[in-house]
């Protein structure tokens, strides 16, 4: 028999994560707290981690490479996805993930989900239900399994609603329609796998605020998204502060190193290896002389540098 071969933990997790399908459309607060247990800060009423607006602003100024590098150093190797169709590739998008999982339609799963959604007071098509839950600063992130034709999760009507609620945009492992209309929504952005004039067919919503896969990345509700024309990085909420301060420090090091290379004070070999004590001393002096270049407080920077091995 199969069941005895499963570990107790595997069985419990299987039952735990399928509970939303039996009980409700969206994950419960307890479930959200379970799979984002490393986050110790503020949460939304639904249980999603609520990374501060101040940190979101700082995330906007770091590079994909810096964020990716810090995440990998922490053991998170599956947080990036590239190869996107981007509505506005000159516009950086940062926000907190509200996730949705879509699957090919199966009536015996979809019908009770729709009934449950109606009982919960959800109205309209199921692809509008996650939109109704958006708050300011959210990004609607959906796994629609790469479906392009008949897989368009939104058009310009839903796009306007998304922007009105979140002042942000979407990341879809799938497609959209009404590109011209979406482009008219000032401030809205979309990172998707394609677009098509067709409308959504033979797809069903399987869960809201559940763990999802976006290409090569695993995404949890409340992850902070950094989306630029080079791709998208999904930062676990509990690592956002570390990613920000580490990335900001790396950027300061790079500014200092580039300046000194242009001045001819050091060689590339000196800058690209472990810094000597004289270079470190020069860098600290440079920080004192350029306080306007610091994206963080000097107190925060000094605390960070005490734990850094350079």
TrEMBL record:
Substrate binds at residues 155-158, 177. Mg(2+) binds at residue 178. One of its GO terms (molecular function) is metal ion binding. Its cofactor is Mg(2+). It comes from the Bacteria. Residues 1-22 form the signal peptide. Keywords: Magnesium, Metal-binding, Signal. InterPro entries: RraA/RraA-like, RraA/RraA-like_sf. This is Regulator of RNase E activity RraA. It comes from Catalinimonas alkaloidigena.
């Amino acid at each position: 028999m199969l069941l005895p071969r499963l570990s107790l933990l595997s069985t419990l997790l299987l039952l735990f994560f399928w509970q939303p399908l039996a009980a409700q459309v969206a994950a419960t607060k307890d479930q959200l707290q379970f799979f984002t247990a490393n986050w110790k800060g503020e949460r939304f009423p639904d249980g999603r981690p609520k990374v501060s607006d101040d940190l979101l602003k700082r995330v906007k100024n770091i590079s994909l490479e810096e964020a990716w590098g810090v995440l990998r150093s922490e053991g998170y190797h599956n947080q990036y996805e590239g190869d996107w169709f981007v509505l506005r590739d000159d516009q950086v998008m940062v926000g907190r993930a509200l996730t949705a999982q879509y699957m090919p339609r199966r009536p015996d799963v979809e019908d009770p989900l729709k009934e449950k959604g109606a009982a919960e007071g959800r109205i309209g098509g199921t692809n509008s239900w996650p939109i109704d839950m958006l708050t300011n600063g959210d990004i609607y992130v959906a796994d629609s399994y790469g479906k392009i034709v008949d897989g368009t999760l939104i058009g310009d009507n839903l796009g306007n609603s998304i922007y009105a609620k979140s002042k942000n945009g979407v990341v879809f492992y799938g497609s959209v329609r009404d590109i011209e209309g979406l482009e008219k929504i000032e401030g809205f952005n979309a990172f998707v796998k394609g677009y098509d004039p067709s409308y959504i067919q033979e797809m069903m919503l399987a869960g809201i605020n559940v763990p999802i896969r976006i290409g090569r990345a695993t995404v949890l509700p409340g992850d902070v998204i950094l989306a630029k024309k080079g791709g998208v990085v999904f930062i676990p909420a509990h690592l956002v502060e570390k990613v920000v301060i580490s990335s900001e420090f790396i950027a300061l090091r790079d500014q200092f190193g580039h300046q000194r290379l242009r001045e001819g004070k050091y060689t590339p070999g000196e800058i690209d290896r472990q810094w000597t004590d004289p270079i470190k001393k020069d860098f600290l002096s440079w920080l004192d002389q350029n306080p306007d270049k610091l994206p963080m407080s000097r107190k925060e920077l000094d605390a960070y540098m005490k734990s850094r091995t350079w």
